[in-house]
């Protein structure tokens, strides 16, 4: 740094906590140690914990600022309220999961990029696995995209295939979406767009936010100079019917919210056909719980889509050149670099 950073340009690193005293003890020390105090403050927003988390913070991390909520507002709304609390004192916020470990100066490259690229509305670092640090982490790897049917995939992860990090994606890149495990946002933009959609509950809420950021004319980036290690998969395993339900429901909601009217009906009809094929696959495998989750997702989507005003987007941001199902299952393209070929 050439000099002190103006208060209005600083960042808040906010960790949302709910009954995560164990995670605080295990991962917060690295965040405190490696977050440069000249550009950022570490803040824990506690979502009405009852496991002694606040006592852990007061006794073991007195240097960490706190936001205390009297009740659990959930993931999305908890972050929305926390960002609203800090907007007057910080230009940026990093939404950091409680199961993330950092080393070196992980934040400065992201902060510098945001400062020098006013067109950027959000970005993420390189996301590596805490369990296997040589591999990318499933939740976002090196930045994400959406194919022509709305299926997400990443630089470094397509479906269940996670790549080893060999530096193959070590260039900054504009992406469609950035991972919510470590998501840096412009506070004014985040709040103006309504933040994370609390109706999603969990899964794809950060993709929906990034889509809205891009529709607002701003960019989303992945910055490899910064890297963090994410435990991930802590709440729901991939085969859990609740995760199936949330992924199917929220993907439909996201398409409904953000696709322009001229293509929305056609794209959603095709997605319903693809989802019906997925339902048939679950039935054929006698996986009745996940099959039921798909049906429930579609039923609740039809009810919930009425909560949203019609999108007036003028551009379709899905990648019309990529059908990730065909690339992965028929062509055998398991890596992002295979798609580029």
UniProtKB/TrEMBL annotation:
Q: Return one GO MF term.
A: glycosyltransferase activity
Q: Which domain of life is it from?
A: Bacteria
Q: Which UniProt keywords apply?
A: Glycosyltransferase, Transferase
**Where's the Glycosyltransferase 2-like domain?**
13-124
Give the protein family: Belongs to the glycosyltransferase 2 family.
* Protein name according to UniProt: Glycosyltransferase family 2 protein
Q: Which organism is it from?
A: Duncaniella dubosii
């Amino acid at each position: 740094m050439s000099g002190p950073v103006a208060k209005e340009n600083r960042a808040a690193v906010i960790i949302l906590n709910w009954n995560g005293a164990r995670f605080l003890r295990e991962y917060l020390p690295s965040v405190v140690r490696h977050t440069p105090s000249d550009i950022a403050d570490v803040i824990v927003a506690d979502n009405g914990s009852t496991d002694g988390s606040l006592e852990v913070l007061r006794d073991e991390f007195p240097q960490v600022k706190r936001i205390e909520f009297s009740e659990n507002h959930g993931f999305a709304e908890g972050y929305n309220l926390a960002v609203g609390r800090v907007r007057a004192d910080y230009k940026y916020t990093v939404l950091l999961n409680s199961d993330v470990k950092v080393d070196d100066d992980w934040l400065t490259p992201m902060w510098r990029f945001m400062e020098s690229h006013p067109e950027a509305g959000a970005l993420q670092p390189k996301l590596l696995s805490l369990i296997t640090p040589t591999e990318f982490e499933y939740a976002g790897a090196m930045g994400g995209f959406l194919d022509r049917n709305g299926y997400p995939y990443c630089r470094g992860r397509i479906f269940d295939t996670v790549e080893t990090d060999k530096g193959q994606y070590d260039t900054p890149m504009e992406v469609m979406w950035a991972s919510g495990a470590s998501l840096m946002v412009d506070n004014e933009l985040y709040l103006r767009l309504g933040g994370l959609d609390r109706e999603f509950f969990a899964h794809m809420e950060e993709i929906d936010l990034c889509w809205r950021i891009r529709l607002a004319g701003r960019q989303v980036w992945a910055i490899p100079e910064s890297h963090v290690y994410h435990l991930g998969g802590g709440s729901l395993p991939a085969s859990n019917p609740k995760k199936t339900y949330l992924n199917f429901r929220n993907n439909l909601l996201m398409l409904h919210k953000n696709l322009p009217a001229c293509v929305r009906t056609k794209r959603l009809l095709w997605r319903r056909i693809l989802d019906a094929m997925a339902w048939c696959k679950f039935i054929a495998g006698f996986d009745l719980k996940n099959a039921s989750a798909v049906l429930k997702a579609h039923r609740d989507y039809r009810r919930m889509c009425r909560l949203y005003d019609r999108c007036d987007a003028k551009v379709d941001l899905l990648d019309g050149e990529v059908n990730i199902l065909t690339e992965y299952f028929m062509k055998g393209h398991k890596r992002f670099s295979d798609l580029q070929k």
